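Priority: low. Protein: Geranylgeranyl transferase type II subunit beta. Input follows.
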Amino acid sequence: MLLKLFTADLGKGGFCSQDEETGGFADRPGDMVDPFHTLFGIAGLSLLGEEQIKPVSPVFCMPEDVLQRVNVQPELVS
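Result:
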């Protein structure tokens, strides 16, 4: 239940920083959008299970289908 409440609040906060006219995300509502916050905002929504966004690798911060297509997999270091 706590996780559900946390993720719901996190999702709402991200959408407050979204620019509905040009797209993208900013660090705060009213600020200019930028590629950094847009990339990590979309990746975060994917990791939270947003169904309209492709699954993203938390290791590479890239779409899983792209990593499969170019045959890139994380390596465990021991």
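Residues 1-8 have pLDDT under 50 and may be disordered. DSSP finds three helices and no strands in the chain.
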